[in-house]
UniProtKB/TrEMBL annotation:
One family name in Pfam for this protein: Acetyltransf_1
Domain N-acetyltransferase: 1-113
GO MF, one example: N-acetyltransferase activity
Single biological process term from Gene Ontology: mitotic sister chromatid cohesion
PROSITE patterns (UniProt xref): GNAT (PS51186)
Alphabetical list of InterPro entries matching this protein: Acyl_CoA_acyltransferase (IPR016181), GNAT_dom (IPR000182), N-term/lysine_N-AcTrnsfr (IPR051556)
Protein name (database record): N-alpha-acetyltransferase 50
Organism: Capsicum annuum (Capsicum pepper)
GO cellular component: NatA complex
Top-level taxon: Eukaryota
């Protein structure tokens, strides 16, 4: 599975079978990014129903191989999902962030109305 291969290359964590089952079940919300026929990144989401509330979109992973960062690949992946959410009137998108000491991270907040 290409998603598993790219995750192993990008992330220090290893994901269980449920992660991949949820990724496939989310349909268009999970995407691979290619550059000259090389898989260089991915975005994976899980759709969750909040008790008594709307369907929520949980960002499980978003990553791009180091040599291909800075080319706009990550933002294209993110925009794809934001567009899907807008078309389906979903406004509850969330994620958890793991920050490694060797990565410089500048948080950015995106709001959808």
């Amino acid at each position: 599975m290409q998603l598993k291969k790219i995750n192993i290359a990008i992330f220090p964590a290893r994901y269980n079978d449920k992660y991949y089952t949820d990724s496939i079940a989310s349909g268009d919300f999970t995407r691979l990014a290619y550059y000259n026929d090389i898989c260089v990144g991915s975005i994976a989401y899980r759709l969750k129903k909040k008790e008594g509330g709307p369907l929520r979109v949980y960002t499980m992973t978003l990553g791009v191989l180091a040599p291909y960062r800075g080319l706009g690949t990550g933002i294209k992946l993110l925009n794809h999902v934001l567009d899907l959410c807008a078309k389906q009137n979903m406004s509850d998108i969330y994620l958890h962030v793991h920050i490694c000491t060797f990565i410089t991270f500048t948080p950015t907040v995106c709001m959808m109305e």
